[in-house]
Amino acid sequence: MVNSVAGEISADKLGWTLVHEHFYFAYPGWQADLTMAPFDREEALRVGLEVCQTLKSAGIQTIVDATPNDTGGREPLLYKELSQMTGINIICVTGLFTESRGAHTYWKVKMAYGADIAQMIAELFIAELTKGIGNTSVKAGLIKVSSSAQMTQYEEETHKAAVMAQKATGAPIITHTDELSGIEQADFLLSQGADPRKVLIGHVTNSGDVEYHRAILKRGVYICFDRMGAAFPLGVSDDVHIQNIVALVREGHTRQIMLSHDTVNLSLGRATARPQAVRSVDHICRNIVPALKAGGVSDEQIWTIMVENPRRFLSDG
Ligand SMILES: [Zn+2]
Q1: How far is the CA of 189 from the centre of ligand 1 (A)?
Q2: From ligand 1's centre to the CA of 114, what distance in Å?
Q3: pLDDT for 218-228, tens place per residue?
Q4: HSE of 13 in the Cβ direction (CA atoms, 13 Å)?
Q5: Is a pLDDT exceeding 80 seen at residue 27?
Q6: Rounded distance, CA 236 to CA 280, Å?
């Protein structure tokens, strides 16, 4: 069984799954600008419905919204409404972003006072996984943690908390990595006792070097090529990722690979031009899957990557 925003569902119902997207997102501090750019629920609902329609017509049945607690845009009740209106399964996270781009201040002040913030954060994660987010009764389905290029002390505490919460609940851990921090991050999580079969190292698309991917895979965890269609932040193109995925599949790593786009479908706050490739949640289905097949990846292997791996990772099985 898996916690979706609309309640528990059987893992068999997940189908084709994107494991790292964002319906809505804003960096912390966006609240300061709410006078100039208030949250427009109607617009958020409109965009969300459009995303769900695009997913449906591409054959995607499940989407993981990886928006953490300390940024803007995690909207459990809106996700629930979208899921009930469209039949798309939505799974949301409990988690925290990196020190530099998240809202660390609250926790770091407690740390300075000597509080055991790993324990406190673990309690928060466990409550959101088992009881619900705030008073919404919508439960998170997985844990998200994030590490900078070099893991900071604060980030070590958030990662410790994630493993504590995993031990208590069995929940899977999905990650954000900056640059090439996936190896250090996987090692840290495993050193704390994380279950490698319940760890998905994200943003391996930061690197076009397949040696980096192999190094993470060696740890027994999953890796996610989750910025397909986005030549950012390090400018690696889809073509390079496709070559690398084909190579890793040939080497027998099919059961450890997942794919997603890391789209932000609505940026909250005031609009700013962003250097980001235009991409949509159907890019993988429409363009990447055919390219992988042309590279020799079989239908069965595509099924493993898009359906079986997310199902195995997200469910207790
Ligand atoms: Zn993301």
Answers
A1: 19
A2: 31
A3: 999 999 999 99
A4: 13
A5: yes
A6: 18
